[in-house]
Amino acid sequence: MDRAAADVADRRRRAVAAGHRGELGKAARLLADPDPTVRAAAVGALARLRGLEGRHLREALADSDPGVRRRACEEVGRGLGREGGDRAEAAAAPSETVELLVAALDDDEPAVVEAAVWALGEAGAAAPTVVHRLMVLAGTATPLCREAAVAALGAIGDPAGLPAVLAALDDRPAVRRRATVALAAFDGEEAEAGLRRAAGDRDWQVRQAAEELLSDA
Fold it and tell me: What is the DSSP letter of 123?
């Protein structure tokens, strides 16, 4: 390892260590490091310390490196998942956090969009205002992002998202499986009809998921 690489590795270790030692200030400073792997580690450290504030998140989501932007979305999603617990009583995500995640849906990197979609799904009941954006992504984005959008619509469970979930039953197998599972979050004849339709799908995993949900109804 040359000296430059060794210096980067040392700074990255310091960023990780800051998250374990409660060194919030050091983690925040390393968010401005010239190396993206160090900045990503700093995002993780701030999240571990529950110190990933709006200003830090805004900076990370504006980073030139997609890996840093994706890490920021992932850490926010993990934090929302921990705090929300039961989706029926999910803690409200800060409005600024939701706004920043929604803005990340316009990212040029699909991996960042997927992570932002997942994070919004983890917000659960706190993110009903983004249902329309997720519905659009469920029908127009890359396959991975469509899959994530359908899963997020199921996690949020807003009735307005049901048409997009039903439409996803015509997508590729991985998306159809997600859509079938997502239907568990919806009540009514349309959702049940969707499950019965999925029970006759040509993909055995889709059929299995539908049959299990129908048997539990």
Answer: T
3-class SS of residue 139: helix
Residue 172 has pLDDT above 50, yes or no: yes
Please give the structure tokens belonging to residue 10. Answer: 């040392």
Residue whose C-alpha is closest to residue 117's, from 88, 172, 77: 77
Q: Within a domain: residue 216?
A: yes
* Cβ partners under 8 Å of residue 102, min gap 6: 116, 120, 130, 133
Dist CA 104 CA 140 (whole Å): 16
Scan for tokens 């991975």, then name that residue. 144
Output the domain CATH number for residue 172: 1.25.10.10
pTM above 0.85, yes or no: yes
- What distance, in Å, lies between the first and last C-alpha atoms of the chain? 59
**CB neighbour list of residue 113: distance below 8 Å, 6 or more residues apart:** 104, 105, 107, 137, 141, 142, 145, 148
Number of domains forming the structure of the chain: 1
Q: Is the pLDDT of residue 146 over 50?
A: yes
By the 8 A CB rule, do 103 and 61 touch? Answer: yes
Percent composition of the chain: helix, strand, coil (DSSP 3-state, to 5): 80, 0, 20
Has residue 50 got a pLDDT over 50?
yes
Residue 93 DSSP one-character state: P
Cβ pair 175, 147 in contact under 8 A: yes
